Fold this protein.
Amino acid sequence: MSHTTLYAEDPEPADRVPAGPLFVPVRSGPAGCTARMFRTALGGRTAVGFTSQQRLTEALGGGQPWVTLSEPALRALTEPLGATAVTVDPRFAPEMSRVRHVRAA
């Protein structure tokens, strides 16, 4: 007789849901902590989650507070706030410094 142990199935590469909890950056607010919202390159609102604490720290720094949430929980919390997407492990572009345009004389 063969003994087979079943484990939680890893998602397929095409699946939208990442395996395991997401490390979600938060900020303090009057009612406790709130998931931070970000903008996509096209200006849309997105919730952000990282697949590891190390990835969150690399992107946002060691002082960034976080909580762990599943992707469906993060989506449920942020959709009412206008976030139509959840971005996993984003790579942030450095902020462009504001350059003053000077008119040539």
Remarks:
- The radius of gyration is 19 Å.
- The longest helix spans residues 53-60.
